[in-house]
Structure formats: C-alpha cells, structure tokens
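Changelog-adjacent note: as of this version, every example in the card shows the full chain rather than a window. The one below runs 326 residues end to end.
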Amino acid sequence: MTSLLRSALRSISQQSHLRFYSAAPKTESLAQLVARLRKETQAPIAKARQALTENNNDYTKALEFLLASAAKTSLKVASRTTKEGLVAVFSSGSHAGLVEVNCETDFVQRSDGFKSAVSTIRGIVQQQRGLEVKPVPGSSLFSECSDAKSLKTWSDANKVTPILVEAIAKMGENMKLRRVTLTPMKPSMSLVYGAFAHGSSDLMGRIGAVVALSISDAMNAPKEELATLARQLAQQVVGFDPIYVRDTDVKDLASLSPEELEAQILYRQQFLMGGGTVEQVLENFRTKHGVAIKVVEFSRYVCGEGIELKESNFAEEVLQQAGLKA
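Full-length structure tokens:
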C-alpha cells in the first residue's frame, strides 16, 4: 500500500461520520448489514454486498474494504484535469467568502451528490479554522488560499478530504478544492456583505460573487432592504463583470473610452434592477433612508477560469487502463 493511500485511509477513518464499528451482531441479516454499510459510506447496494461477501459478512472488515476502495479510486483519478465544478458563496453578519470545487464533467457538476459535497465543504470553510490565507493584492478585506499543498493539508485536518474521497468513489471523477477567498471573521456594524451565484437558488453556480458595503448609520438602516440591495449588487457583479468599483480606482481614466468606462466601472453600470446607474441607486437609497452606502470591494469567481484542459488520446487512455501501456 502506497504512502498516499495510507494517508487517505488514515484521514477518512479519523472522521466522525465514518466511524468504525465492532463486528455486527450475528443476528443481523445481510440486508441489515448492507443498509448499515450504505448509511455509513453512501456506497451503492452492489458495492456494499460485494464488501460483505468478500469479508464473510464481517462488518468492520467490509467497512475497511469500502474505505480502501474509495481511497484507491481517489488516487487513480487524481491526475485528471478538473475544469468543471461549482462556485459556492456565503455571507453573514460577520464575514463572507467564495469557494471553488472542481470536477471533470458538467454531468457530475449538476448531480445532487456533487452539490451536497460542495455545500458541506462550504460550511466547513465558513468556520475558517486554521486556513492559511494571504491578502489579495490591492484588497483591504479579501484574503485567499489557492496553494494546492496548503489546501490539501487543511483539507486533511478539517474533514474535507473524506468528503471528496467519498464523492469521487461514488461518481468516479476526480474532484478538488481549488481555491477559497474570505473576509475577516470579525463582526462589524459598518460593513454588510452580499453574495450571489448564477444558476442556483442555494448560492452555488458556475459564477459567484461577494460584495462588501460600508454603511454610515447601521442602527437606522432598513435591514431587509439593505440585505436585498447587497444581494442585488453581488448579482450585478456576477452578471456584468466590472473590474473597478469607482472612477478613482482606475489609474489612467483618460485611456478608457466611454463604453469601456461604463463596462468596467461598477458605479457607472446601469443597475440590473433599473433606477439608473449603480451610483444613482446608492444615492437614491441615501435620500430615501438617510443612510449612505458605499461599495468597498467585491470578489468574483468563474469556475474553471485559468485551467487548461489537457487534450487526451482516447485510445491511449483505454490501453493504459488495461495495463497495456505505461
């Protein structure tokens, strides 16, 4: 057994949702053992039956068999390119963030199993325990982690690795936690975050964004309307892909055409919900509620951006899988 496989097995077996049980009582039927194995590992019925059959209905050994099989599958597909996947976003009163998890095909990307895995990983990331992040260049709020080694170390220590290994074993595709962007986990009365992801109602999609807003008078700001506006501004960033927040963020404003200024500067864009430009909508909010709002920063992910898809020779892949070619 390779050191990578041992590491994967150790990581899985230490997680609370994959507990090792003592051998099942003799009174349990095969059907009951299969049901218990499936509940513990999410393995298909046929795979659970195989594990029990090959281990004389010994539950503990069958569980070990399934975990080893899952880890081997994970290692087998580890070199495959993962360009599809989902961006998951979140926002709360204290912080916000974006998470990208990749898979190989859009078929798996649309599956409930993959969505569930991504949602669970987002929840773990949201707790921000021990994740080493570095400030995003030019940002005062957002920090990121996209280093594969750092993400792997953190994933092993925070129950993310077994989630991915289980999903890989079940769906047969390589999957990776690619990158994370976070704001500080500090409650602030003067900051509000909005989050939006395209194509999904559960804040997951192919494109996601988080927007940070500063508020002049949080105590008197209408909370529901403010939350709606923050979400809509995040939706604006997802749909219209601005580069800058305001004119003063552009180093050489004169070098841009009027069309480029409107396309690249958030405040100059027409607000997607109507009412003029984004800047005019913020000014109208101040006039109506007596509360000034400014967009501080935003962060936007497009799933798979920057990943080059390796061209593969299908015939060579078949020969390699058959062990006929190195």
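Structural remarks: Confidence is low (pLDDT under 50) at residues 1-6, 15-25.
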